[in-house]
Amino acid sequence: MSSPNSASAPSLRGPDHLPAPFPEEQPRVTRFAPSPTGYLHLGHAYAALFAYEAARFAGGRFLLRLEDIDRHRCRPQFAEAILADLSWLGLAWDPPLRRQSEQLEVYAAALERLRELGVVYPCFCTHESMRREVEAAGFAPHGPEGEPPYPGICRRLGEAERARRLRRGGSYCWRLDVERALALTGRLRWFDCRAGEVEARPELLGDVVLGRKDHPVSYHLAVTVDDALQGVTLVTRGEDLFHATHIHRLLQALLGLPTPRYYHHNIVADSRGRRMAKRNRAVTLRHLRDQGRTPEEVWRLLGLGERHPQPASV
Question: Does 12 map to a domain?
Answer without folding.
Answer: no
